[in-house]
Structures are given as structure tokens and as C-alpha cells.
Design brief:
Number of strands: 20
Distance between the termini: 29 Å
Strand content: 5-15%
Largest sheet: 3 strands, antiparallel
Structural class: alpha+beta
Number of helices: 13
Shape: globular
Length: 385
């Protein structure tokens, strides 16, 4: 526990340090990325709560930060109550082309619901009602394809149309969005049965397939959604950890592969980003051609495998992968991206989204799934637990 707490202490105690300052000497690119997304914002709000739960920050300071964030959220331009997918943080303006992401909207809405229940528990009713108003305005039905009974990827505001792509698997990062929309009565409950449950297996062990075989697809929704032992989802999460650990064992590296930055750069010398996964789990081909390990994947795995995830995090730390705000974004073992003689290259960046998910996962593990319990206090979810 002390090891895990230490990763986040400095990051959370100083409100000026949510992103690396301009003088951090960690190449190739210095300074904060001046943009944020609905998922980033949701994880930032829940990180304030988790920091208070874990006594890394006082509750009063957490409430102050939350109030400031809600001030900003209320002032941002929106589409039918939904935040756009990216905002310029210097000017609080949406980045063009404007787009509304279904999964990001679900992530933010779920975070606001958990936040609302926390604030009521803390006796901050006024703030709780503000969080509720933001959440209630985010009706998910406009992002739903009623003919297919599936959620689309999102809405292209510039084109004025839904994207022709759909979330059709239960083992998906959109699982939280689907749950919310069904439980709140915004879409047909038959949608839940429409989500694919096809199985993949290895060594007589199996679980549900995902698209890209990432830890994010399987575990991210469970920061707020419980997973009952013995259920198909629980077995699929267990199989995900098994497949991830097996990939690490085969390559003789740490395990934990997910969407993350990797050791390649865009023209501005910022790290590129994509979904890195495990072929055993994913339907997309060619997933094992590259190998990028993201520490946040191990934090997510604390839900099911706390001891082995803790050992894996220690192994990453022992490789010298710790920076200003904890473990770096990722470590890339892909030979084609390494210089001669190198075994790996560190992706020396920090993402609010991934650090936030990690902190919420720690809070759940050390405090009896506290964030899940808060989320489920909403009376709308009682029949769907």
C-alpha cells in the first residue's frame, strides 16, 4: 500500500501539478498538453475524491478543487448537454473538428454520478446538485442507433451525423455507457442482450473477446461497475489477466498491455498513441507484432489480482521507470522501434486519464470497492445490480 500511495502523493497534493510543468527535464517533449477530454475530466474529479479517501489530500481541498472544476464544466460550450471530445484548456474552447464521443460521454456521466453520491455523503448538497444537473443533461439516446440497437462511436458535429461505427461487444470500454443508458431508461433494455459475448480461449481457459485485447476494454468500466464472482464478466476479466500475464511470460517482460503511448513520435515530437493489445484476447489481427507495457494496466488489474499486479508494478519500478509523477506512461519492447543494443525504451510522459484510473483503482482495492458502492447508490441502478 505504501508503494502505491507514494506514486500519487506529490501529483495530488499540489493543484498546480496536474500536468508536468514546463521545466521538467524528461525528453523528447516538455510541458503539458493543452487539451482535455470528458474522460480526463471525469477521472480528475474522481481522483480528487480518491485522494481524500486515501488521506493523500484533505477533504476541504478536494471540495475546493471539485467546485472549481464544476464551475468550468458549467461554462463550457456543449452539444445537447454533452461535452465535446476535446477542449483547449487555455481558452476553454472545443477543438475542431468538433466531435461527441459516446464512450467519453458515458465515462464522464458515470463519474458525475459517483461524484454526486460522494458529495451527498460529505454533506456538500449544493455541489452534489450541480454534479447531478450536469449528469442529467447528458441524455445518451441521441448517440444510439435504434435500428441496430447499438451505440454508435459518436456524433460528428461538423458533418451533423452519427459516425458509421458501432460498439457491439460486451467486453468493451463502452460497457459503462450501455449500462447507464439501460438503467436510466433512455434506450431499449434489449440493447444489453445485443452486445456480443463470443468466446476466445487458451489452454482450456476462456473468456469474452474484445476488439483490441487491451486491459482498458475489460477493466476500465469496473472502476464503477461491480463484477459478481462466477459471472461471465468475472470469468472474462480473469481470463484477460491470465492472457496478459502469459504474454509477459512468453516475452520475458513485465505484463499489462493496453491502449497507451508508444515509442514513436509525431511531427511535433509528441509520443504517438494507440490501442496495444494481446492477440489471444482481441479480434483485431496483428496485435502481437508489437509489445508495449503500460503500468496503469497493472493498477486496473488490482481488482482481481492484487498480489501479482503489485509484484509487476515493483518490477517496472525496479527498471527505473519512475518519474516526477510516478511510473511513466509505458515501456516499449518493440524491436523495430529500438536502437541497436537497447532492450526497451521508456515512454516518458504522464496522462491524467491513466493516472486517474490508477488512483481510483487503488481507492477501490484499499477501501472495499468504495467508488463502485457510491455509483450504485443511485436508485435507478437498484434493479440492475
Amino acid at each position: 500500500a505504501n508503494l502505491i500511495w507514494g506514486y500519487f502523493r506529490d501529483w495530488l497534493r499540489e493543484e498546480d501539478h496536474w500536468l508536468p510543468p514546463d521545466n521538467v527535464q524528461e525528453k523528447p517533449w516538455l510541458g503539458p498538453a493543452r487539451r482535455t477530454s470528458p474522460t480526463n475530466i471525469g477521472m480528475t474529479l474522481l481522483s480528487c475524491v480518491s485522494a481524500a479517501d486515501l488521506e493523500l489530500n484533505c477533504r476541504g481541498h478536494a471540495v475546493k478543487l471539485i467546485a472549481q472544476i464544476l464551475d468550468t464544466l458549467e461554462s463550457l460550450p456543449k452539444w445537447k448537454g454533452h461535452l465535446y471530445n476535446w477542449y483547449d484548456t487555455e481558452h476553454c474552447a472545443p477543438l475542431y473538428p468538433r466531435y461527441v464521443s459516446t464512450v467519453d460521454s458515458g465515462n464522464l456521466r458515470g463519474s458525475l454520478i459517483a461524484l454526486r453520491e460522494t458529495l451527498y455523503q460529505w454533506g456538500e448538497g449544493g455541489l452534489a446538485r450541480r454534479a447531478e444537473a450536469l449528469s442529467d443533461a447528458m441524455d445518451l439516446a441521441p448517440l444510439y442507433d435504434r435500428e441496430r440497437r447499438l451505440f454508435t462511436i459518436g456524433f460528428d458535429v461538423e458533418k451533423g451525423e452519427l459516425t458509421e461505427g458501432w460498439y457491439d461487444l460486451l467486453a468493451s470500454e463502452a460497457r459503462l455507457t450501455s449500462y447507464l443508458a439501460v438503467a436510466l431508461g433512455e434506450i431499449d433494455p434489449k440493447h444489453w442482450r445485443k452486445l456480443g459475448r463470443g468466446l476466445v480461449g487458451d489452454n482450456n481457459y476462456c473468456g469474452m473477446a474484445s476488439w483490441t485485447g487491451t486491459m482498458f476494454e475489460y477493466f476500465m468500466p469496473n472502476l464503477l461497475l461491480p463484477c459478481e464472482e462466477g459471472s461471465l464478466m468475472y470469468e472474462s476479466l480473469s481470463f484477460c489477466v491470465y492472457a496478459q500475464k502469459r504474454r509477459g511470460s512468453q516475452s520475458k517482460t513485465p505484463w499489462g498491455i493496453s491502449e497507451s503511448g508508444f515509442y514513436a513520435f509525431d511531427p511535433g515530437m509528441a509520443y504517438q498513441y494507440k490501442a496495444n493489445g494481446v492477440q489471444t484476447l482481441g479480434m483485431k489481427r496483428g496485435l502481437d507484432k508489437e509489445l508495449v507495457v503500460a503500468p496503469y494496466a497493472s493498477f486496473l488489474a488490482l481488482l482481481l489480482a492484487p498480489r501479482s499486479a503489485g509484484r509487476n508494478l515493483r518490477r517496472l519500478q525496479d527498471m527505473g521507470l519512475e518519474g516526477t509523477y510516478g511510473l511513466y506512461e509505458a515501456v516499449d519492447f518493440t524491436p523495430s522501434r529500438l536502437q541497436m543494443g537497447e532492450e526497451w525504451a521508456a515512454v516518458r510522459s504522464f496522462m491524467v486519464h491513466h493516472l486517474g484510473m490508477s488512483l481510483v483503482a487503488i481507492d477501490n482495492v484499499l477501501n472495499g470497492n468504495i467508488m463502485q458502492e457510491r455509483f450504485l447508490k443511485d436508485c435507478s441502478f437498484g434493479a440492475f445490480r
